[in-house]
Amino acid sequence: MNEERVGLQSRARITAVGSYVPEKVLTNHDLEQMVETTDEWIVQRTGIRERRIAASDQFTSDLCVAAARDLAERYGKSLEDVEVIIVSTSTPDYSFPSVSSQVQARLGIKEAGAIDLQAACAGFAYGLHLANSLVTAGMHRKVLVIGAETLSKITDYTDRTTCILFGDGAGAVLVERDDQHPGFLSYHLGSQGEGGIHLYCTGLSSRMGDQELVAKNRIIQNGREVYKWAVTTVPKGMQRVVEKAGMDLKEVDWFVPHSANLRMIESICEKTGFPLARTLYSLEYFGNTSAATIPLSLDLAVKEGKIKAGDTILMYGFGGGLVHAGLLVRWGEM
């Protein structure tokens, strides 16, 4: 058997999806009152019109719980028997306890492993890959994967190059054992750590050259360099994913990239020849929500009736690290 045909080994599939975004809306017109910018300029360069902002007393764990409850209610799923909770986030409530531990407690899941995963904007794809691996290995049968962020809490609203981009939100999926109709077909992971200086959040260290910055926990981005990296790296990664599945990009029904910037997505589609009309994104009204963009895009498409059972979906996350991860899945009956 060709070792590249990794999808043949999967024993898991996505069985439910849910999402949540805060009530407060921050429009481009609102930003015009805060920094030197215009609605036209933002839309032309990013495709973003609005973003959601968490309340002052609302944190990533709150968004995660709401998204998980949305999933459970819509699909009639019990979460009490979830065996592992994976939360992908760059904006945890605390360094510890983990967001996943708080989710476990608030959802009343009595016995579950709890993992916070930090892979920035590729976090949800990494979380799904880990969930598939745990279930396929036979170690667990039901894993809750959540991508969630409250990026507004680490955004510098005096920096017009970054504050126009980011928003808050959460998306969740259940990954369960299915020997008859597994949904994970292939994957590709990668990292270019030397590029981390182009996109990072200030912290304890000043090695990235931010000695003059007083505030900790603020997003620093060299948009030009991140753009160049993404539009070069992602098309190659997409090709690797489909090749591992023994498929061609033309056979993919939907492409779900990280919703960083619509112009970036358009460039990736142009380079690969993948139709923008079959590309799903959540940035127009939610902004860049990092680890939450892909599950938010999936849930929007499900609600709009775009994604159907049997569709093949290529997800690709990419961001700070610089890290990236692609997954090809077949959507099942839900």
List keywords for this structure.
334 residues; five-stranded mixed β-sheet; four-stranded mixed β-sheet
Cα end-to-end separation: 31 Å
Form type: globular
What fraction, in percent, of the residue positions are helical?
25-40%
**How is the biggest beta sheet arranged?**
5 strands, mixed
Radius of gyration, rounded?
19 Å
Average pLDDT confidence is: 90
Q: Quote the beta fraction.
A: 15-25%
E-strand count: 13
Trace the largest sheet across and list its strands. 1-7-6-4-5
The number of helical runs is 9
Uncertain regions spanning at least 5 consecutive residues:
1-8
SSE pattern, N- to C-terminal: EEHHEHEHEHEEEEEHEHHHEE
Q: What assembly state would you assign to the polypeptide chains in this entry?
A: single chain
Helices and strands: which structural class?
Answer: alpha/beta
List the helices and strands and how they pair.
Layout: E1 12-20, E2 24-27, H1 28-32, H2 39-46, E3 50-53, H3 60-75, E4 84-88, H4 99-106, E5 113-117, H5 123-136, E6 142-150, E7 168-177, E8 184-191, E9 199-201, E10 219-221, H6 223-244, E11 254-257, H7 262-272, H8 283-286, H9 293-303, E12 312-319, E13 323-330
Parallel strand pairs: 4-5, 4-6, 11-12
Antiparallel strand pairs: 1-7, 2-3, 6-7, 8-13, 9-10, 12-13
